Structure formats: C-alpha cells, structure tokens
Amino acid sequence: MINSKEKYSKFIKEEAKRLGFLSCGISKAGFLEQEAPRLENWLKNNRNGQMTYMENHFDKRLDPTLLVDDGKSVVSLLLNYYPDKIQNDESFKISKYAYGQDYHFVIKDKLKELLHTIQENIGDVSGRAFVDSAPVLDKAWAAKSGLGWIGKNSNLLTQKVGSFYFIAELIIDLDLEYDHAVTDHCGSCTACIDACPTQAIVAPYIVDGSKCISYYTIELKENLPIEMKGKFDEWMFGCDTCQDVCPWNRFSKPHSEPLFSPNPDLLNFSKKDWIEITEETFRLVFKNSPIKRTKFEGLKRNIKFLE
C-alpha cells in the first residue's frame, strides 16, 4: 500500500502518463476567488451569446467541492490531439480537435480507468470524472495546477507543447501534494488578437464567445448573421486561427492516440466534395465524430454560408 501524499501524487501522475495523457497537475479543491468576478463580468456582457447553459450552476463552476462531496483535490489532465496530417489546402476547414472520434468518450474511458486504478492501489477514494460537459472551469484548474498559463486567446498555453490538447479533470476526496501555477509567457505578442477573423478577442485574455467562428458554426442553431458573410476564412466547423498563429504552437507534436486519427476522406475532400456531401456520406465519415453535433443540416448551412 502507498502511504503518503507525495507518493499518491507521484503514483497518479505516473498512471496518467501510462494512459497516454500529456501531463497531469494537481491543485487543492476550493473556491476560485479570482475567477468569480471574471466569469460574472463575462456573463453580464453577454459574451456567452446563446450558450445559456454557461449561466447555470454559477456557484458550482467556481467551487468543485459543490460537485463532489468532500472533494479535496482537482487532478487536471491534458491529452494531445495535434494531428500529423491536416486537410488539403483547397478545402473548407474543420477544427483539428474534430478530426477523429469524439474526445468526450475517448477521455472519459481513460479517466474511469485512472480512477479505478487509484481506488485499487490507494484504497477507498471517491470522485468524479469531468470532460468539458459539466460546470467545471477546466482552464482555470489546469493553470492553477501548473500545466500552463491562460493566454491572450483565453486558451491554456504551455512552452513545451503549445495548446492543441484537451483538458479534463478528476475531482477526488483525497488529500494530495499540490502543484503551483506557472508564469505567463505571452509577453507583448498579439498574434492571436491580430489574426482573429471576426475580432472575437475583444481585449487581451477576453474572448467574446458570441463573436467566435466556433460559436457560429457549432453553437448557434439559427441562421448565420449576414454581416458575418465572408469573414469565416473557410472554417465550416470550429476555428483554429488563434492557435495556428500562436508562436508556442510551433512546438506542437503529433498525438499518439489511434482514436483521434481522421477518416482519410476528411483530409482529402475538396470544396466540391463538401458542397455535394450526402447525408449517407456524412454519417459514414463522421461516425462517432464531434462534428455530429452540428448534424447534417447544420454542416450544410455552414458550407452554404461559405460558398
């Protein structure tokens, strides 16, 4: 049996690595004091657009102990999704995170295994796994546990591997050794702000979600606003512009998760192929893909808007 905070923490990090996670950091569960006014202002300025779910569970978003009884530690994990090949140049674009299978399922399975291994080796540990689908401020917790800093494009950035990774958490009722936040390395760079096709980064570190191409192409269920015509820079699902131009992403390395490998058709489709895509092909190419979120009609709407 393992018997100290230091050993527990080391064990959890080693297991996370074994499961393919890029990195793992741990912080003490509690109220996110600095995030509270930021989140309040962001919502007050309607930066969430029609993402009304962002207004729900305000208290839980800021305090994970309300999500897990007696929660003591937030174990933050990063999983790389940077692809080794990208779409051909003559195509409408898809955000790289959506190339392979839906990350929710891929990561949830890994988290369940990690929790199970913790329980087997450490003992009676209770907790919950979270993958971007519950009121948890993923980036804030990852930054707090030293996995990176929040950049001017509001993404978590790291010096070694940039920002093309998913963030997930285990919140558990176990005291552990806690990591410390790292310093901000954005400096005077404004590459992401300057490059955003819709000027969604309204100030350094503040993104207006309701102006983001990802919001328009995924979250918005009604017609796309006509004043945005010509501003999507060929993105039909999501947008990677602020990550593509970030100098730290020159250190991105290809992932090694087979489930994130894309259907070859996705990489080879031309604009003509996308315009002519049938529902049957959509179902085939995007089986178990995050792109199913827009449904066939949503993707067709986005493509038509780009024509």
TrEMBL record:
Residue numbers annotated as active site: D132 (proton donor)
Gene3D superfamilies the UniProt entry points to: 3.30.70.20
Pathway(s) per entry: tRNA modification; tRNA-queuosine biosynthesis
A Pfam family annotated for this UniProt entry: QueG_DUF1730
Enzyme nomenclature, EC number: 1.17.99.6
UniProt-annotated location(s): Cytoplasm
Family membership: Belongs to the QueG family.
Name of the protein this chain belongs to: Epoxyqueuosine reductase
Organism listed in the record: Flavobacterium potami
